[in-house]
Write a structure and sequence with these properties.
Elements lengths: L4 H4 L1 E8 L2 E2 L9 E8 L2 E8 H10 L4 E7 L5 E9 H7 L4 E6 L1
Antiparallel strand pairs: 1-2, 1-6, 3-4, 4-7, 5-6
């Protein structure tokens, strides 16, 4: 769940954590669901995993570190930030469920 999408305009997707692939890079699921809050609504974006991976890999989206910290105070999780406007503009999702909150 991305709790900051409504402020940043980006959806954060985990790719690597604690020395190994994680999140989108480790899933074996056919579909990947992103749950975020945006414009006072709760959104559930459903993607075909392979299409989302290809979209991430062919674009140079910003990558940051976050999540838990190691014993030296360094963040352990690598995250790619997908601009929500790019997801909507390219319509790469299979379905978008929106719930008013």
């Amino acid at each position: 769940m991305d709790l900051m999408a409504h402020k940043t305009g980006n959806i954060a997707i985990e790719t690597f954590s604690r020395g190994k692939n994680s999140g989108i890079n480790s899933t074996i699921a056919d579909y990947f669901v992103i749950h975020c809050f945006y414009e006072n609504k709760e959104h559930f974006y459903v993607f075909k995993t392979e299409i989302l991976k290809e979209f991430i890999n062919k674009n140079n989206f910003r990558k940051v570190f976050g999540g838990d910290k190691d014993e030296y105070g360094n963040f352990t999780t690598k995250i790619v930030l997908l601009p929500l406007k790019e997801i909507l503009r390219n319509e790469i999702y299979v379905k978008n469920y929106i719930i008013d909150i």
